[in-house]
Amino acid sequence: MTASKQPKGESEKVVEKKMKPITALRLQRMIGLVIALFLLLAAVFLSLMVGAKPLSFSVVWEALFSSANSYDYTIIHESRIPRTIIALAVGPAFGLAGAVIQALTRNPLADPGILGVNAGAAFAVALAVGVFSITSITSYIWFALVGAFVATIAIYFIGGGAGKKSPSPEQIVLAGVAMAAALNGITTALSLINSRAFAGMLNWRIGSIARKGLEDLWPILPFLVIGLIVALAIAPALNAIAFGDDRASSLGVNVNRMRILGLIAVTLLAGGATAIAGPIVFIGLMVPHCVRWFVGPDQPWIFLYSVVVAPLILLLSDIIGRVVMSPAEVPVGIITGFVGAPILLILVRRRKASSL
């Protein structure tokens, strides 16, 4: 009896030793997520306070919960609240789209632009403005969504998705790069031919969340929500795909179905966000990369963190853009490029952060 109990005791010790680092990592992730949420809340209030006319916290708080007809009230409710809410909507979309495409392609340096989603949306908008003379955002938003859908489907089939076997990550990447280059060239040509029509879209092409109202967001919001749900639903399966298609199939994952769902999620998220805010760079590339360094290669946690950290970085970048050349503003797409490039270079040199 004594001999039979000894192995059981040793086994329990082994299990306990294995559980300790898992429990510690889970606790670290949860604490980090709570901190990120608090930082996001602080960034929201900063977004409401900072601008051409700085407002105190007490003024913002009073304006949020009162209906006083004042200049400060007008600034907050007609400009800063819509701007902040749009950032809270498109930030997670860009970040999560980047996380999905990095998991699908098993490439930690991939982003939504690699599928040509941004290029497809921009090309469709250029077509709407240059050919059909549509300059209202509520009208060309739909062109952007259609362009994103068509570009993603085309890339999937060009990459080999028309056959029985799903296209490899390398094929999707090459097809996306080629498609993006071609569409960006055509878009630039259209903007040069009719420069007057494109003058009002300059901020959109750079990437901006300024001078947009909530009425511009509502038509896009359902697409973003559906994309969010699809992405979170396939997150556990993407953990298996990270080991390769053959290993994922042996674990019971339908790789082709997951890849199609992933492409749909990326199209809805990045296409919808690009439609309203323009092709904001580095959010989809930088955020999942930073998050992976902290939480490890577990896709559900990467996705969850990306939903919180992406709008945090977008809001902070937008705040910097408001004050760096005050009273003029720098579009947030330029700031994310300046902030994202050095951070990404630092992370690329870290072996832990550069691997999936």
Automatic annotation (TrEMBL):
Membrane topology: Multi-pass membrane protein
Keywords (A to Z) from UniProt: Cell membrane, Membrane, Transmembrane, Transmembrane helix, Transport
Any one Pfam family match given in the protein's UniProt record, by short name: FecCD
Keyword Transmembrane: yes
Cell compartments where the protein resides: Cell membrane
Top-level division of the source organism's lineage: Bacteria
Membrane-spanning segments: 30-52, 81-101, 113-134, 140-160, 172-193, 220-242, 263-287, 299-316, 328-348
InterPro entries, sorted: ABC_BtuC-like, ABC_transptr_permease_BtuC
PANTHER family for the chain: FE(3+) DICITRATE TRANSPORT SYSTEM PERMEASE PROTEIN FECC-RELATED, FERRIC ENTEROBACTIN TRANSPORT SYSTEM PERMEASE PROTEIN
Entry's family note: Belongs to the binding-protein-dependent transport system permease family. FecCD subfamily.
Protein name, UniProt field: Iron complex transport system permease protein
The organism of origin for this protein: Anoxybacillus andreesenii
